[in-house]
Design brief:
CATH topology of the largest domain in chain A: Rossmann fold
Distance between the termini of chain A: 76 Å
Oligomer: homodimer
Largest interface: A-B, 50 and 50 residues
Number of strands of chain A: 12
Strand content of chain A: 5-15%
Strand order of the largest sheet of chain A: 2-1-3-4-5-11
Shape of chain A: elongated
Number of helices of chain A: 12
CATH architecture of the largest domain in chain A: 3-Layer(aba) Sandwich
CATH class of the largest domain in chain A: Alpha Beta
Number of domains of chain A: 3
Largest sheet of chain A: 6 strands, parallel
Order of helices and strands of chain A: HHHHEHEHEHEEHEHEHEHEEHEE
Structural class of chain A: alpha/beta
DNA sequence: TTGATTTGCGCAATCGTTTGCGTATAGTTT
DNA sequence: AAACTATACGCAAACGATTGCGCAAATCAA
């Protein structure tokens, strides 16, 4: 008899009250003019019957789902679980549930997934996918769906966002290398259809310029994805094209680790031969060999901030659209060292 | 005018047909006796109006949500995102969405989260939390909710599960160490309220026995969580209590990495002084120093298999309850080496 | 006791879809 | 041309919860 779930009507009948009374008795705060006596009785009966509101019926009526959707490119990249955790931390306290979907940076699927979430009437959306020029945003704002972006800013200011100051972050890395005496620094850029890919590349160029380093075309290679593989391929290309390079700024930790792979394969020593910096400070990069010098961004905090922004917008659809930018910090470890001693040119080709 | 979303009624009116006709025209497969003409017309109008089914209304009527819930202890541990990805891979092809919640191994929250998911009418549940003696399972099966467990078997055979053969996995590690000449091997066990904690510990004891190694009380210390911190603490204890230890098998990679931390702090060299094995082969452990010898389990596959099992049960509520056990494999890297040369006893205390 | 005021609870409409059933029209057969 | 069978579509009743409204009972003042 547990099999067929109890409905509000059942509870009401069993408690000998009207269904509407039961409804009111069961809701949390405002005992909307009901005797404590009745409340108690209904609650007991509900418990006994194993009653549980049907979220659909409820949401259908109230038009609120108490669920928010999170869109991520892929869960593999360790930053994203961190973001999700941050979001969860704050929204779960407010009684929200989260629905996650990943779209693998596939624009096609991206739109479909968003539609799906909207059909599920999520109260709001957190977009952690960094696709540039996302047409979905326009449709979201036009339909008045609260949404906030993480890791990417809407250049038209339609949706609030939480980002880190990528230009600044990369500048930290470049300055650090320059202060170690490096003059010939290369950049392994992220995919240029992702916002982080372009902002970090821009940051690299700017930082180099203000430091008076000149960088040529061949000193920048863009990886086709944020992955170790892509990083390794990019590193190989850089090395063969720039024999004088003494330092590498990677657009992300995974790319940097890919460089490790490539270097190991070709006998290049890090940091003795070339220094490397990463970006993100993901878990475990302090344990790799050599421990990676990188730019730390607090993803969990990003998630938490995004959640706050979203909740505020859900509460008030025209809360101000703000861009929250977090300060990255440099974490110096052992993958970078002084360039004073140029590496011997007799390094294996 | 996009603001207020179009309902089926609107579409019907605009297309000049009855609402029920519109409904039929919009659904995918069985053009339930509708002229292609009408279908076309309705579809166009729907598109123009930006119509989108209200999943709530639909699910309320059909009692299906096309959503499945996944419960995870925490997203930090890299195995879980992998599982989720595996699940997503298969269910998204079938048009399901996934709702994720993590309960942080908190029994309290655990139950609440499950209730919440049920209120949302998920069609099925994947439980990746490894809490032992979970009362929730009973309530799930009694309510006939399709559920499958990952990483943990229901000893009463009520719900299907996907697990790896932990006893075998640990045995692989122990045999490996024994074959390298290690005789005094210690185990850093996982929390004993988690199933993996107990099965791996049992595996360790059994393997030691069949290899004729005797292990004493003090050779096993159980960590209070699967984390680097806990691993470091456990390692320190082990070292001070067992001065003759030459090898450590950790119940999980994070614990093993925690050992690294502890060893580094106390000047113990790995593997020269003591060998270590981990469990899981999570990303990047091939890059740490020294690269970690560990037991590989394919979490993504686990997720995928679990999803298949779940879909089958959703399709047919009394599909057979099976336990799928995956074979772990040993990945030998550099954190283990021959015990021939015992470490000197003048190691710093 | 009467009238005014508060309070507890029932009534019924509503949210947007889905679907079994019934009917009208078109199409086929004799 | 009549009688029949298909076929396309409309009707209306669900699904389960929420909530404005209103009625009756209870409370109070005079």
């Amino acid at each position: 008899m547990e099999k067929t779930k109890a409905t509000l009507k059942d509870v009401a009948k069993a408690a000998g009250v009207h269904i509407s009374t039961a409804s009111r008795a069961l809701k949390a705060e405002p005992q909307h003019r009901i005797t404590p006596d009745v409340v108690e009785r209904v609650r007991i009966v509900a418990g006994k019957l194993g009653y549980r509101v049907n979220a659909f019926a409820s949401s259908l009526r109230t038009k609120r789902s108490n669920a928010i959707g999170i869109l991520i490119p892929d869960l593999w990249n360790p930053g994203f679980p961190a973001i999700v955790t941050g979001v969860q931390d704050v929204v779960s306290r407010e009684g929200y549930e989260i629905t996650i979907a990943s779209d693998g940076n596939d624009l096609e699927r991206h739109a479909a997934v968003i539609e799906n979430m909207l059909a599920r009437q999520v109260d709001g959306l957190i977009l952690a996918t960094a696709i540039l020029k996302d047409p979905a945003i326009a449709s979201l704002v036009s339909r008045n769906v609260p949404a906030v972006m993480v890791n990417r800013r809407d250049d038209q200011g339609r949706a609030p966002s939480v980002i880190t100051d990528d230009e600044r972050g990369i500048a930290l890395a470049v300055e650090h290398l320059a202060s170690l005496g490096h003059r010939h620094i290369c950049h392994i850029a992220g995919p240029q259809n992702l916002s982080t890919g372009v902002t970090r590349k821009r940051g690299f160029l700017e930082a180099a310029k203000t430091l008076g380093l000149k960088v040529q075309e061949s000193q920048i290679v863009v990886a086709d994805s944020y992955s170790r593989d892509a990083g390794a391929r990019a590193a190989s290309r850089i090395i063969t094209q720039n024999r004088q390079v003494t330092a590498l700024v990677a657009a992300n930790d995974l790319l940097a680790l890919g460089c490790y792979d490539s270097f190991r394969a070709s006998g290049i020593r890090c940091p003795a031969d070339v220094s490397i910096t990463g970006y993100n400070d993901m878990p475990l990069v302090d344990l790799v060999s050599p421990p990676l010098t990188t730019v730390r961004v607090d993803h969990r905090q990003m998630g938490a901030e995004a959640a706050h922004l979203l909740l505020r917008r859900i509460g008030n659809t025209n809360a101000p659209v703000v861009d929250l930018v977090l300060r990255p910090t440099l974490v110096v470890r052992a993958s970078t060292s002084s360039a004073a001693v140029r590496r011997s040119s007799k390094r294996p080709s």
